[in-house]
Design brief:
The protein is an all-alpha fold. The protein is built from three helices and no strands. The chain has a domain at 39-101: Ribosomal protein S20 (Methane Monooxygenase Hydroxylase, Chain G, domain 1). The longest helix is centred in the middle third of the chain and has 33 residues, at 24-56. The radius of gyration is 18 Å and the shape is elongated. The chain starts with 23 loop residues before the first helix and ends with a helix. Residues 1-10 have low confidence and may be disordered.
C-alpha cells in the first residue's frame, strides 16, 4: 500500500476518517502522518524480529555475522526518532553482552 512496504492488517487505516480536518493542508498532514506511522511500525517490527533471531542464535560465528546488521537497524530507528537514542544504546549494549558471552 505504501511504496512496497508491508501493510499491517492488524490495524487497518481505512476506518480513520479525514472528515474532522477542514483545511486541505491538514488533510494532507494526516495522510502523511499515517504513512509515516505505518513505515515506522514496519521498520520497528522488522528490527525487533532481527533482534529476537540474533538472541536466539547459539553459534558465535552466526551471531557475529548478523550482529553489525542488527546494530545498524537499531541506529537507523534512533536516527528516525522511532525509538529514543538511549533505548537504542541500551539495546545495543545488551545485545553485545549476549553475543560476547557465546562460546
Amino acid at each position: 500500500m505504501f511504496d512496497g512496504i508491508y501493510y499491517y492488517l492488524c490495524s487497518p487505516l481505512e476506518n480513520i476518517s479525514l472528515a474532522m480536518a477542514n483545511h486541505k493542508a491538514t488533510k494532507k498532514d494526516i495522510r502523511q502522518s499515517l504513512k509515516r506511522r505505518e513505515r515506522n511500525r514496519y521498520y520497528g517490527k522488522t528490527t525487533r524480529n532481527a533482534i529476537r533471531a540474533l538472541l536466539a542464535t547459539t553459534e558465535k560465528s552466526a551471531a557475529m555475522e548478523s550482529f553489525p546488521k542488527v546494530i545498524s537497524m537499531i541506529d537507523k530507528l534512533a536516527k528516525r526518532n522511532v525509538i529514543h537514542k538511549n533505548k537504542a544504546s541500551n539495546l545495543k549494549s545488551g545485545i553485545a553482552k549476549r553475543v560476547n558471552a557465546l562460546a
